[in-house]
Each structure stands twice: as structure tokens, then as C-alpha cells.
Amino acid sequence: MADRGDGAPPRYRDLPETDGGARSGWHLFGEDDSVGLLNLVTPAKAVQAAGLVRRGAVFPLDLASDFLDPPLFGRGFARRTTLVTRPGAALDDVHDNFYPQSGSQWDALAHVAFDRDRFYNGRTAADVDGGANTIDHWAARGIVTRAVVLDLAGAVDERGGPGTAVALTPADLEAAREAAGVEVTTGDVLVLHTGFLDWYATLGRAERVRISHRDALRAAGIEHTPEMAEYLWDLHVGGVVTDAPALEVWPPDHRREAWPWGFLHQVLIGQFGLAIGELWWLRDLVEDCRADGRWEAMLSSTPMNARGGIGSPANALAVK
Amino acid sequence: MADRGDGAPPRYRDLPETDGGARSGWHLFGEDDSVGLLNLVTPAKAVQAAGLVRRGAVFPLDLASDFLDPPLFGRGFARRTTLVTRPGAALDDVHDNFYPQSGSQWDALAHVAFDRDRFYNGRTAADVDGGANTIDHWAARGIVTRAVVLDLAGAVDERGGPGTAVALTPADLEAAREAAGVEVTTGDVLVLHTGFLDWYATLGRAERVRISHRDALRAAGIEHTPEMAEYLWDLHVGGVVTDAPALEVWPPDHRREAWPWGFLHQVLIGQFGLAIGELWWLRDLVEDCRADGRWEAMLSSTPMNARGGIGSPANALAVK
Amino acid sequence: MADRGDGAPPRYRDLPETDGGARSGWHLFGEDDSVGLLNLVTPAKAVQAAGLVRRGAVFPLDLASDFLDPPLFGRGFARRTTLVTRPGAALDDVHDNFYPQSGSQWDALAHVAFDRDRFYNGRTAADVDGGANTIDHWAARGIVTRAVVLDLAGAVDERGGPGTAVALTPADLEAAREAAGVEVTTGDVLVLHTGFLDWYATLGRAERVRISHRDALRAAGIEHTPEMAEYLWDLHVGGVVTDAPALEVWPPDHRREAWPWGFLHQVLIGQFGLAIGELWWLRDLVEDCRADGRWEAMLSSTPMNARGGIGSPANALAVK
Amino acid sequence: MADRGDGAPPRYRDLPETDGGARSGWHLFGEDDSVGLLNLVTPAKAVQAAGLVRRGAVFPLDLASDFLDPPLFGRGFARRTTLVTRPGAALDDVHDNFYPQSGSQWDALAHVAFDRDRFYNGRTAADVDGGANTIDHWAARGIVTRAVVLDLAGAVDERGGPGTAVALTPADLEAAREAAGVEVTTGDVLVLHTGFLDWYATLGRAERVRISHRDALRAAGIEHTPEMAEYLWDLHVGGVVTDAPALEVWPPDHRREAWPWGFLHQVLIGQFGLAIGELWWLRDLVEDCRADGRWEAMLSSTPMNARGGIGSPANALAVK
């Protein structure tokens, strides 16, 4: 890996420029890399993370399959069918219409390209079909690292709440970090609590139906700006996860003239190779952090070992 | 929980007797319990487990989705469909025919009953339909505990190999434990390596097709006996996992006259509430244990948060 | 069957009244009937229909699986997976997410109730689960009868076009019938051409995406009125099919105060037991009728023999 | 179409020879044809067929979805899920794991190749992926033609019954034809009743489970011989359908040295472009033929309009 001489990745301003004013992390981990910034999650990170386990409090971070009702983006529920192997005595089950990205999720690096046929590390859509950037590359490593939790719910509430298009800035994240009294270290996973799912849990059916449509959804999230890209890169985190439907403020701007900054996924996934997690259930973890004042935890996650997959359930635990 | 006065569960011989000469763990954790022996996986176990992380070596324990080809028991492959959201630029995917028990898996306590309409803790099939004993009860806790690894591959090989019906006895397990120089403590997960998947990986297609049929399959595993039930109970483990298709030697004996000892699942799941994991990929972990002589690890697993589900992928990591 | 003494069903005004000012066809074909007005499609109708075949021109009436793109009502495409049995030499396939009502379709009598737990012929939702009113009852008969085609596209175009909420009246249908110079006889299937699919075929992607959302869709169709119910009943047809997403003008009015006339399905299916077909591809047939001046044909259809099913592809041909 | 000068296709002995001693029907209907011998089902055939409708007796020929229990060849049941749109008042449904060839079915010309990458009319597997020889080509025509019914159940019973590997010869078919007193004309569909499904309906569960395995299945059918190929070609039928799992006696012989005559599908589909139907429910139709002595009917079928599909339910009716 090309670096600054001290083992850490280069600074954003030292990355090569690419189109649209973005900078590129391609080839930092080699021509054949399909892992991206999770390469920064080294064995040393697992040791560091295990050292954070004090009370043995375990926080599952995956939503139940029926929490989002109806599912967002019109995906439809997964259909689970119970199969009776021996009546009254032995059961199996099988799932159909199972979208690994319909609930608490990881986006594989194959999910969004920087631009047409320009996926992370220079891959084409055909390369993705051939197995580049897919979720099984993460499954083959597993993820055990330190999580740093930033509570942005207060800032979001002041500016309209998690069901509105509040754009969080680097200054907002820094303020939360300072309030938590925590440093971010290379290879951490940054956990951003916006309060979206806590708010969703309070909604009546009519409102849930309404925001299940892509066009009607509004959600708080990080801003789609070069400044945010630079801020996140320079933290040298392996991943960023959140409780909102997208990491960024929703909706994005897909017009060509807004490219690439209309939708920061294009830079974060397509150029940086950043692991992005969305719709994670963070409330229990955040309440515990508020109670004990410790905004860090061991994070353990097993991305789905689906050959060629584009996404995965979060399959994640925080342990304190 | 009723216990022996020292916080540990009762001994097998002190459990109430039930039909067929079996003993019952029902109601040990209360009338409403759907968790079973994973109740023994307490926060203290997570702390103990984290203390085992020395080098930060992470071992993903889930098979890739295409490892078993064809899938066992005629289940058919999961079908993963890539969905093109924006051509060449944004992809999603969706899975159909996804059997959570087709690869590396957990069996929920709803999987097999002691007898018709006698599921763990006295539940009927209707209770299971209503949400008793299902996988989401485990998902709501997560699993972080100490794993103890027993290498039985040598014993299996001496007696015919993992593709034959080698029945492992308590003495075999004890011998492996002593060879490893390790103690089993309450709330551990016991990890039994038979070599089945290592052997499977060497098979040609014709042989893999042949054993994919239920009737043709033969596999090593623990014996279907009261002695094995007593041995496993008295270890007071939270779960037992293996690399073979069933925890027990295959095939079981489903004839009525053989009940309940013809198929130990009926006692282990239906009466004990034991968490059973099957088809876990153990080779990398076992090779590491052989190399460093340490047969224990932190085990982390996130059962699938599927409301009402009967099973789950293992979603498991060992960390040393 | 209770009738007027001449073998035909009673007139609408002679049917018993039920709630909301509607009249009821329940029990006209017996307490156990799950077939409804398709009972009027007798063997004599098949003979009559066969007599209409002059040139042997066959008109398939089912849309291709990719015609509606994206599918309406957010259902998602069916996913067809090709399975390679022997590479390059033998293929199979399998479908997931297959909504039998996503394209050209029949609604079974289990599709919509008159009111909560009041399905056709007095059935509850539990009765439907037990097999009442389901599609297999029609599959067990097949449908071969005379089709009468009414071309309403001109009337629709004059009043806003098929993509607007044009409500067609009995007078509109009568005018089309007279223009066609055709009589409707007991047991016919009435075929109503609004031009919706012809218009849909001209739309660009953005517009197709827009109207795929339930709330944004507008479509011409018959009015939701007692007069239309009476008109259709008194024709004594076995079914009514159309090329629009619903037989009736869309959207319906689901407010309680509008019940039952806010959504005529509730009366037509729930009280009459009328076979309703939607999204049938009628353009080729209608163009042929325009050319030869004959607005009748043999209609042949095989509803899907799915045990307990709620709907079916049209599986229909017209032959002239 | 190249022909003998009288509008009929060439005789088998006049077809060009190809490998393995087979003769080829490729390009008889043009280089771009994906329809095959169903080209012989002309409008004149629909007129002829309609003329056979005397009593209006309709015979649905599709099995119910739960008739084959368990499904043959280990395919698993289709899973039909009822979706509650409005509780107690409006239902939809959706199917997963729906194999169009698991019950009464048509094999598209893409189903089996003559040899590797030699599908009907010279198409490769890639051509099939691109839409050649797929079921939608038949759906776009529909099928209305004369059916000729041959009752072979007696001959099968004499030689071991439909659950044994009875190989039917051209002489057997000729004897059945003569007994029926019927001529086969160009473009007919030949309907062969072996009694397989009638026998299947009598089996207990254990036997049905046993024969659901590919290796254990035995079934009567036409012999895999050049003589049978010549006989069927020279009838100039558009299709051949049967009530057995394969048109031919089962099992076929897939060894390379047996090619192409080890599995007549390879010649009938791959070289002739013959429409083959299997597992059709023929008992009701055959009993009617026995009763009235008329062994012909109008056949109407709508192959599934699935873009790129490899098979279809039969979606078929016979009308007399």
C-alpha cells in the first residue's frame, strides 16, 4: 500500500485526482483488490477491539425482518415459508424475495460505481459479474474492529428531525466526536446515530406507507460534498454505518450535472472503497453509551458469504 | 433457574425423567423461555471470550454459498439475482429459494420436537407458529462466548472416515479434550471437527451428486445414545457445533420403536434446548489450533433476525 | 339455480337487497358454489363459440412478461432463472416473485370481498384459506365461450385518454355495442377495449416509472355506480375483461363512507361472483374486428390450476 | 419451407443427414425460425379443430399444483403466498420456486439440444440466452389445432404397467390409431395416453416419495429409436403430448456412446423442433373418447408468455 511513510494511508489531498473534482483510492491496495478500506481492519484492530469488552454487554444491531413495514423503496417483504418435514415434529424454512439490503445492511463495493462501468478499483460491470468487488470478499475476512459511536440525533432534531433532509457536515460530526471525548483511529468503523429508526418506530401505518415510496422519503444523513469526502477519508476508517436509509441525506441528486457530488456513494464506494452500512439498529447501543459515557465498542460482523453478492445483512454485534 | 446451589444447572441425573427414558430441561429457564441453553451464555462469557483474543486472527466459519454443489438433501441452490438499478452504475440483489439451513447453520429450537407437538419447553406446533422457540429469540441476544475446539478427525479417519457412519462416543470427545489440554466451562460453545467438509472438498462431482440424496448420505457424528445426552448436558455448554451435516452420525433412525434415541436431536433440541450448529467451516480454525496448541477462541455469531424463523446461517467468526 | 322461469338468471331488480344498497347474487348457484357467474358458461356456449371460428385467426391475449416495465403497483418483476442441467445441452427454468395478477390476469372470486369477511357466497377469509372461491375452481372447468368485443377507445380518447380517470357509463357501453352491431347473450365474456395498453406502449421510461406507483396511476374504466352494476348483471355475462389495470376507472375510493360503491369490485366480485380480467392485450384483436366488422370471437382460457390461488394469468386466446 | 411439392413437409428419408445417423429439420422454416413444427399449425387447423366441437364438453388438461406430491426430480413445490392487501377484504398472491415444467408442461425448443451448443435450427446456448427457441415464440402464436388421442394404456399394462420402463414402438402407436379409427393429419397434436398419471393417483406416499428421485423413476413411453423418430416425423404433427414424465420411456441413456439415440429428445427437439408436452392430465378426455368413440378434439393451449422462457405449463383444454 502506498502510504505516507508511517503505515497510514495517504491524506485525501495527496490522492490522485480523477473526474469531477474527486480523488481516487483505486489501486492503493493493489490492482486486484476487492476489499477496499476494510483492508485497514487488521488483526491488530481485533486485538484492540477485544480490549474494549468490559461488561460483556452484547448489542445486536440487526433489525427484525418485520420492523420496516412496509419495506422501503417498494422492495416487498421477504417471504419466509415454514416447511413441515415431519408433521408436528420437524420443521425447516426457506426464504424468497430476500433482499439483503432491505433492512440493516452492508453495501458491497459492487453496489454503486463512481460512474458508468467505473466501479471501485477500475472494475466494469462485467468485472462485477465475474466476481470483483462482491460481498464474498468481505465474508472471507470477517470484520472485528473498534467501533466509535457518534450521536447526531440532537443535531438532527434541532434542524427538523430524522425524517427531514437534514444534511450533516464535518463540523457536526466533529462536535459529536468531541462531545463523546473519543478519538477515531485507523481501521475503526464509524457509527453515526441520526435517530431515524427510533423515529420510524413511532410512526403510524399511513406515514410508514407514505415514506416507503422512494420519492416521498426524506431522511437525515451526511452531506453530499467534497468536504465530507475529505473528512471521512482522512479519518482512515474502514467503514461508516448509520441508522438511516442511506448514509447520506436523502434524496440524492441523480442529475448528470450534479455528478459526482450529487450522490456521495459514487465517491465513497466507487472511488474510496469504503464499507457503508445502513439501517442499523443503534438505539440500544447509543442509550448504553449515554449511560456509561464510553462511545466505543468491539464491533463484530459476518457479511453474508454469497458468491457474487451485492449486499448483505449487517449480521453485526457491538460488545462493551 | 433451578440449580445445584452454585449457579450451575442441575446434573443430568437430577433432571426430571420424561418419556422414553430421556430427561427434561423444560422450564429450567422459566415457562416462557424460547432461548434454551444459550441462557448460559452470559455477559461474563463475553468478557471471558474477549480475553482469548491474542493475535487478532479472525476465522470466518460460514461456507460460501456455492461450496455444497449440489446442495445436500435436494434443497436446490439459493438463487441470487443481480438487479440493475442504473445500468453499469448501481446494482442490488435479491435471493430466492434461500434455505437458512442449507449451508453453515444454526437450528432454532423450533426445528425438531421431542415428539409430535412436544417442542422445547412444552410448546406445540401452533405455539411455534405463534413465535415460540424461533430464531429471532437468539437474534435478540446475539452470541459472544468462548469456543472450545475438539479435533475428532483422527478418530473418525481411523474408523472409516467422515463420509461413513462413524459414531463418536463420549470417550472419543474426552480423548480429544484431553489431547487439547482444555477444560469446558459453563456457557461455552463446543466445536467438534470431524473432517467432513475437508473431505467433501476433495470429492468429484459424481460423488457429490450421489451424497446429495438423503438416502445415500453417510456421515460421522456423535452417537445417538443416552450416554451422549448425559455427557453433553453435564458439560453445561450453550451450544454444540460441527462441520458435518448433522451433529449426530447420519443416518438417524426414524422408526417409532427407536424413539427418542434413534435421533438425538429429539432430546438435545426438544428436551435440552441445546443450540446446534452444523456444516460449519472449521478447517482453517483447526489448523491454527494445531499450530499454536490453543484450542479455545472467542466465538461471535449473529443468528438471522427473521421473525418466526426455524433456522439461520451460522454468521459466525472465531477470533484468537 | 333460481331463475325467471326461462333458464336465465333473475334480473338485477329481482335479486335480494343487501347492505349499502347493493343486490346479492349469493347462493344463486348453491351454497357451495365457488365458480360464480362462470356457471353461465355452459357446454352450449362452447359449441356456440366454436361456430364463430371462420378464418382460424388466433389472437393471444396475454402480455409478454416484460411488457409492463416497471410492473404496476410496485410488485417487482418475476425473476426467471435459467438452470443448466447439462452445459450447453439441456436447460430448465424456474420463476420467483411471480405475481399471477401482475400482467394479463383473472381475479379469482377470493380476490376482493364485498366487505370484511364477506367474500362471494358468504365466505370468510378463513373459508378462502380453506379453498373457497379460489382459482382452481375455474381451472377445473376451463373457459370456452363467446366473446363480445366493445371498442371504447374512441370514447375514452374524447374525454382525456386512457391514462386519465375517464369513467365509462352504461350508455357508453351500449353505444359501443350498437356501433358493433352485436348482441350480448347469456354466458358470453364481455371484452372492453379502452386503449390503455396501446397508450402504455407509447410511453417513455420516466412516465412508465411514474404511473407504476399506485398513487400516481390514473386509468379509464367503467364507473363505480349502482347503474353499472345493474347493467352488467342484466347482461348475464360470465365475465368482463379489459385492457386497463382495473376494470373500473382508477383510482377507486376506499373511504368507508364510499362503501360499497367506491370500488365496484366489491359488488361485482363479492356479491355477483363475476369473473374479471384485466390488462389483457386486446389491440390485435380489436384491429381485426375493425377490419372485418365482426365483434365476436371464440374465447378460450385456462386459469392456472394453483390450489388455493387468488389469481391467474389470463392464459387466453381469441379465435375468429 | 422446402417441401414435396404438395404443401406438406418432406419425408424423413428426404431430410438431410446429420451426425449420429439422425436427420435434420433445421432451416425448413427459415434460418430465423424459433417455432419449429408448430409452424404446421396453420389457421386452417384452427378452423378444422373448431369443427370438431359437438357437445361443448371441455376437458382441462393441467394437473393441480399439488397433484405430484412430492414433485418429481426433486424440484420442490412451488410456494404460493397469499398477500393480505386489506385484512379480510382484499387478497393477492405470489408464487416462488415455480418450475413451469414441474407439472403438465410444454418443453420449449430451448429445453434440450441435439448436442452441446447445437440447439434447434443451429442455435448455441448463447443464442438461447439471446432469445432464440424460447417459449415466448410459441406464446406469440397460441395453439389451436386438432388433437388425435391414442390410448396406449392397454399395451402398457400388458407389458408391466406405466411405472415400468415399457418402450412403445411405432407398431404400438399404429395399433392404437387403428383401434381408434382415426387418421393423423398434418399439423395435428398427437396425444398419447400411457396411464402413468392414472396409476400415480393410486400410489401411497412412500411410493410417491421413492419415484420422486430421478434415479428411482421408471416410466413407460415411446422408444428411443431412429424408427420412432422417422414415424413421428412422417406424421407431420406439430406436437406430441403425453401423461408420462417424459415423452420417451424413462430412464434415457445419457452415455456418450449412446448419443443421439439414447435420449430421443435430442433428435425430436434438437433436430425436428417438435413441441413436446408431458404430464398432461388425460384421463377424463380418454374416458370420454372411450365412451363416444371419437378420438379427436379441438386442442387449445396458451404457452406462458415468459420472455426467454425454457418451458411452460400446458395451459391446455380439449373440447369435443
From TrEMBL, chains A, B, C, D:
A Pfam family per the record: Cyclase
Superkingdom in the source lineage: Bacteria
InterPro entries xref list: KFase/CYL, KFase_sf
PANTHER family named in the record: PTHR34861
Name used for this protein in its record: Cyclase family protein
Organism expressing this protein natively: Pseudonocardia humida
